[in-house]
Design brief:
Radius of gyration: 21 Å
Strand content: 5-15%
Distance between the termini: 60 Å
Structural class: alpha/beta
Order of helices and strands: HEHHEHEHEEHEEHEEEHHHEEHEEEH
Number of helices: 12
Largest sheet: 7 strands, mixed
Strand order of the largest sheet: 2-8-7-6-5-3-4
Helix content: 25-40%
Length: 394
């Protein structure tokens, strides 16, 4: 028996596990202190009433012979895929139903999609980056190269024609930086991918936070993207499904190479390794796209947008450089006084008991930066901002 030696090439501790570990150790040593967590991007509001009602109804379906469901379609039930298709149409994107695949979340599919690509492919990811992009490729033994995201380019790197990559990861609005590409900037990436024969793996998990018309809600709003981009999205941040688990991936039928179809390969992969998302969960997800569901969910999104605005306005008052805060639930700030990321983490934890995420955990270019999330409760966010501003104003 031999184990996969490529696991030696990834960090032993997952970033967010290390953040949780340090916060727990502090709380254990100081039980009298109230620690406010704005680190991990988990939602705090409950599921919308329309979703809960649909979940209950689906549970009732499972109790009756005539409506009971066993194994479902590998690609998802048509009722949910039709709802997703209509959602794309509301943003001017026309998809075929068989290009939409329901999953248990974007994180899973962003790793699983690699099954259809050769390990010989060179992968381009931004730095700083969501660790899943790097770790899943490192586990498989692929070569990973980096596009430098930094303060100079607003953490939005653009294509470098001197670099050859086969698989390109783009997340917009970005995790961790909150920065978002304009449609014009995305067009440059799409043109680059089409010219070089690369594929873009486009993570649209935070598209629901976009309010600026110059930004894309989907990569398929960009001409030519259907020939080079696979899009991943999730109900986790859109509708609070972090614990309920549901997402979707769009694989256009026009993406082909070596006589093979990415769409057909992905269906074959799912049929082999995945038994689909539970019927009950898919019924709840479909309710997200109803008129009542959209209304209730937008109210929840506005709640998080207000939290983001509170944090961003605090940075403005303190004169701290940042990205995000608008069109994104994340605020990516420059650590004051030239502090390193983990030093700033310890400083905040020790002095004001506020937990964020050190930028260094997202890559070399994240050093000296720090991520705060707007997914906390309004009360926690307000108190954390007050502590933060008072401490850094002294």
């Amino acid at each position: 028996m031999k184990l996969n030696k490529n696991f030696k090439n990834i960090e032993e501790n997952y970033l967010f596990a290390e953040v949780a570990k340090r916060a727990a150790a502090y709380s254990s040593a100081h039980p009298e202190k109230r620690v406010l967590k704005l680190g991990i991007g988990d939602v705090t509001l409950p599921l919308a009433p329309a979703v809960i009602s649909a979940l209950h109804s689906a549970v009732d379906d499972m109790s009756k012979q005539e409506s009971f469901k066993g194994y479902g379609p590998y690609e998802g039930y048509d009722f949910l895929r039709e709802s997703i298709r209509a959602y794309y149409m509301s943003h001017g994107v026309n998809l075929s139903l068989d290009e939409i695949f329901v999953s248990d979340g974007a994180k899973s599919d962003l790793g699983n999609i690699l099954d259809i690509f050769s390990v010989d492919n060179t992968v381009l990811v931004p730095d700083p980056v969501y660790p899943v992009y790097v770790d899943t490729n490192a586990m498989a033994g692929r070569k990973v190269i980096y596009a430098a995201a930094n303060e100079g380019n607003g953490f939005l790197p653009m294509p470098d024609k001197s670099i050859k990559a086969d698989v390109i990861y783009i997340c917009s609005p970005n995790n961790p930086t909150g920065a978002a590409y304009t449609k014009a900037q995305l067009k440059e990436w799409v043109d680059y991918a089409n010219a070089t024969g690369a594929v873009i793996l486009y993570d649209a998990a935070y598209e629901c936070f976009i309010t600026d018309e110059s930004l894309a809600r989907s990569v398929y709003q960009i001409e030519g993207a259907e020939n080079c981009a696979i899009e991943f999205c999730s109900f986790s941040k859109t509708a609070g499904f972090t614990g309920t688990r549901c997402g979707y991936t769009v694989v256009p039928k026009s993406i082909k190479a070596d006589g093979l179809s990415a769409n057909a390969m992905w269906f074959r992969r799912q049929a082999t390794k995945f038994n689909g998302v539970p019927y009950i969960v898919q019924k709840g997800a479909a309710a997200v796209f109803t008129a009542q569901g959209r209304k209730e969910i937008n109210e929840n999104l506005n709640y998080y947008r207000r939290n983001a605005k509170l944090i961003a306005e605090c940075m403005d008052r303190l004169g701290i450089w940042y990205t995000g805060g608008k069109n994104s639930p994340y605020i990516w700030l420059k650590c004051p006084d030239g502090l390193k990321s983990w030093d700033f983490f310890d400083t905040l934890l020790e002095n004001i008991q506020v937990v964020g995420t050190p930028g260094a955990g997202f890559g070399k270019n994240g050093e000296g930066f720090f991520r705060l999330t707007a997914f906390g409760s309004e009360q926690v966010t307000k108190e954390a901002v007050e502590r933060f501003e008072k401490f850094l104003s002294e």
